[in-house]
Structure formats: structure tokens, C-alpha cells
């Protein structure tokens, strides 16, 4: 997570300043070659018998080429996948996740991949009604991720965004391949933080059904790192650019009374890019995303760090000393760190205290 220093206090003015710069450059950055995302899914029950069935699924990529895919859907009648081929299929409750295997992950525009599975059922076996591919809803059409006319692009939420929830985004630049470890790992960190807040406060925040919304970024990593910077100081550039893109594309305020938002981007300049939080927002760069995915350091650091940054998003300042609370460097000792009673009171009385139940 971000370094504990006075620099965190700069996040609000820096982000606000970036909004002016972004407004001046966004039209020039958009063009007819804007990235697009879209998909179509054909789900067919190929055979059915008492208590069991076979199914085949064909997924067609209608957007820009992808190098790997994850298809998700949910069953509404208690069906269970028992065996699959041409994809790795897992299930948690009603939620099913199918991930490409080594030979069918790359899908060009218009390209398709198929897989099959056997399953069991009890009361019924209706066909699922909604699918997402790499976090994008499969509607049979294409949604632009930027507008060639310079207008406001359509948002691409990969799941529902219920009010008074913590809404989480992973922004993937155009030159970063999709990797399922990232949305899965970020979701695990958020669930851990959710459990910690319940332990500490006796109540906690809600997450959406699709915990992490995967956003295909409009630019490559270098653009996020170097654009809208002041001189050689790139500390806030990458997260400031992500923040502005998420707010614009999803029509989110800073802060926003509907959601408390968390954004992570897989981009940073080594030892130059950072992140932090302010009321209503957590914005984090590449090393945090890597850590959540399990590829950068021990997990207690990332668990404690998210608890710390969420504390800022709920309105808490940094502690003035290493005092055993997660608002100080004591977050590195997670889970052996605890909010003070004053911090608990401040969270519950703050702008987002009503989100906790």
C-alpha cells in the first residue's frame, strides 16, 4: 500500500488538478481505433436425464482481441457442474467460473471458443440468463471503451453496483494481459478487510455480487504513468489518471454518496508511483495489484494495507505515531492491529458510516 508519509495529504488536490488536465487531453486521446469489448454466448443443453445433464458453451468475442478469457454465470435452480472439458470450470454456490485452457485462450475479434461439461440437477435445469466474459456483460453487442466522437463513453460494469456498497475496480491497461489471479486476489483482499471491519466494529461494509469489476483501460501503461504529471514527480500520476478515467466512464463522483470506491491499476513506475486514499476513494497502483494477486510479498501486508486505506476512505487520518492501530505503520503487523475506540467512533459517525451494517 502507499507509503506512510505526509504525501498522502496531497491526494485530493493532485487528483482535482488532474481533472483539469484530463479534460484538455481526452478528446485528443480518443479516436476511431478506440478499444471495444463485447461478447455472445451460446449455451446448449445437449442431453438431459433424471438428475443429470450435458451442456456445451460457445463464447464469441465481439470486441478487440484478447489473450485469455474467463466466463462467468450463475445457476438459478441449484445445478452443479461435475465434469468439464476444454475449459477449467469451478463453482462456488450458484456462481460458475470457466477459464480457458492453454490452447484456446486467444480470441481474435469474431473468434470463438467452445467447451463442454456434465452437471447435476434436482428441481429443474433452466438455461442461465446472464454471462460475463473477462468481466464484461455478454449482450451480443459491442460497447466502446472510449468514444470516437469525444462524447461520454458507455460504462462497462461487470456486475451489479448496489447502493451503499464498496465498489471495486481493477483497471487493466491495453498492454496488460488479462490474468484471473488479479480479480480473484483483489476480491480475496476485500473480503478479508470486510471480515476485519466486522471484527473491529461489530458491523461491516457490503460488497457487490461481482466483487471486482474488470475495466479494460483506454491507454497503455506508459500513458498512465507519464501523462498529467508535474515535472519528474510521477508518484500520483498513475493513480490520478486511473481515478479520472473511472469517474468519467462510470459517472462516479469524488466522493460519491452511492458508493465507496476502490480502484487498482496494473501500472506503475518503480519507486515513483504510489497510491493512497481520501474520503470515498482508495486508489492504488501496480505493486498493490500484484500483492493482492499473490506475486509481491506476504499477504498480511496487503490485507493490513487495504484495511489502512479503507480507513482513510471512511474518513480517518493517519496516526501521528506507530500506535498499534491500522492507521499507523502497525498495519504491517496485521492481524495484530486494532482500531482505537476514537477511530471506531469516527468511522461510524463519518460520511460513510451508514454503509456499515
TrEMBL record:
PROSITE patterns: CBM2
Signal as UniProt keyword: yes
Chain intervals for the UniProt region annotation (Disordered): 142-162
Protein name: Cellulose-binding domain-containing protein
Phylogenetic lineage: Bacteria, Bacillati, Actinomycetota, Actinomycetes, Micromonosporales
Segment forming the signal sequence: 1-28
Annotated keywords: Signal
Composition bias, Low complexity: 142-160
InterPro entries: CBD2 (IPR001919), CBM2/CBM3_carb-bd_dom_sf (IPR008965), CBM2_carb-bd_dom_sf (IPR012291)
Domain spans labelled CBM2: 32-141
Amino acid at each position: 500500500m502507499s507509503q506512510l508519509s505526509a504525501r498522502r495529504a496531497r491526494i485530493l488536490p493532485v487528483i482535482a488538478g488532474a481533472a483539469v488536465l484530463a479534460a484538455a487531453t481526452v478528446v485528443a486521446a480518443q479516436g476511431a481505433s478506440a478499444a471495444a469489448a463485447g461478447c455472445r454466448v451460446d449455451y446448449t443443453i445437449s442431453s438431459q436425464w433424471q438428475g443429470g445433464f450435458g451442456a456445451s458453451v460457445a463464447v464469441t468475442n465481439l470486441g478487440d482481441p484478447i489473450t485469455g478469457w474467463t466466463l462467468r454465470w450463475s445457476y438459478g435452480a441449484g445445478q452443479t457442474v461435475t465434469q468439464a472439458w476444454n475449459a477449467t470450470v469451478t463453482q462456488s454456490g450458484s456462481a460458475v467460473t470457466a477459464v480457458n485452457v492453454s490452447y484456446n485462450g486467444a480470441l481474435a475479434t469474431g473468434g470463438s471458443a467452445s467447451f463442454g461439461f456434465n452437471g447435476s440437477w434436482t428441481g429443474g435445469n433452466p438455461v442461465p440468463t446472464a454471462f460475463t466474459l473477462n468481466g464484461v456483460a455478454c449482450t451480443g453487442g459491442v460497447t466502446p471503451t472510449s468514444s470516437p466522437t469525444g462524447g461520454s463513453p458507455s460504462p462497462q460494469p461487470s456486475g451489479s453496483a448496489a447502493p451503499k456498497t464498496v465498489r471495486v475496480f481493477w483497471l487493466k491497461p491495453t498492454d496488460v494481459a488479462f490474468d484471473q489471479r488479479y480479480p480473484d486476489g483483489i476480491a480475496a483482499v476485500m473480503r478479508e478487510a470486510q471480515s476485519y471491519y466486522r471484527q473491529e466494529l461489530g458491523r461491516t461494509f457490503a460488497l457487490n455480487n461481482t466483487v471486482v469489476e474488470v475495466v479494460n483501460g483506454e491507454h497503455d501503461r506508459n500513458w498512465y504513468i507519464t501523462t498529467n504529471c508535474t515535472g519528474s514527480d510521477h508518484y500520483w500520476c498513475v493513480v490520478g489518471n486511473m481515478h479520472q478515467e473511472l469517474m468519467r466512464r462510470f459517472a462516479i463522483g469524488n466522493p460519491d454518496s452511492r458508493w465507496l470506491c476502490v480502484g487498482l491499476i496494473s501500472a506503475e513506475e518503480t519507486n515513483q508511483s504510489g497510491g493512497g486514499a481520501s474520503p470515498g476513494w482508495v486508489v492504488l497502483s501496480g505493486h498493490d495489484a500484484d500483492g493482492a494477486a499473490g506475486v509481491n510479498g506476504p499477504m498480511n501486508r496487503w490485507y493490513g494495507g487495504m484495511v489502512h486505506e479503507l480507513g482513510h476512505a471512511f474518513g480517518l487520518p493517519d496516526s501521528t505515531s506507530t500506535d498499534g492501530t491500522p492507521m499507523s505503520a502497525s498495519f504491517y503487523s496485521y492481524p495484530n492491529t486494532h482500531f482505537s475506540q476514537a477511530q471506531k467512533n469516527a468511522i461510524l459517525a463519518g460520511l460513510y458510516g451508514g454503509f456499515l451494517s
